[in-house]
Amino acid sequence: MVNYTLMISADLENLTNLQPQGGCDDSAFAYYFKLKCGNCGEVSPKETCLSLNETVPIPKSRGTTNLVQKCKFCDREGTVTMITGRGQPLTQEASEAGKSSRLMVFDCRGFEPLEFAFYGGWKVESVAGTTYDDVDLSAGEFAEYDEKGECPVMISNLRASFSVTKS
Ligand SMILES: [Zn+2]
Fold this sequence. Notes:
Elements: E1 2-13, E2 15-20, E3 31-37, E4 48-50, E5 56-57, E6 64-65, E7 67-70, E8 77-83, H1 92-96, E9 101-109, E10 111-117, E11 121-126, E12 131-136, E13 142-146, E14 151-166
Antiparallel strand pairs: 1-9, 1-14, 2-11, 3-4, 3-10, 5-6, 7-8, 8-9, 11-12, 13-14
The protein binds zinc ion (ZN).
Zinc ion binds next to loops.
């Protein structure tokens, strides 16, 4: 079984604990990324959207999964299942150390995930204690002035990647 772990990193100026609005396991948060077919190599033209509160039955099986998708090119069907409990917010310490944070693990059958897109609402805290809700990161950055800490706060250099974990 091959799992893909979504890792994010960013430069955080006077900010910490960057995560999806309700946490990494927020059931309503939508993770957007493209899928590459493991059979023919075709990449889906648009991002696919997955969230924990959307489940579908696995074809010809008993369990449920978060996505069943058919490759438009070769008709091969694949599934993506989200594995909860592994994510953690991106802290300022990790960011300064040049480390990435693990957000979510995906069990992908028949597809390989790529090109995660930072859509949806995000939450981040300033080091002075201000919480910013529903932050839009789709433009790739965020900048504000923190009244409490009397300093600028900024998210920049956002990056995401999927690392392969075999289990
Ligand atoms: Zn295909």
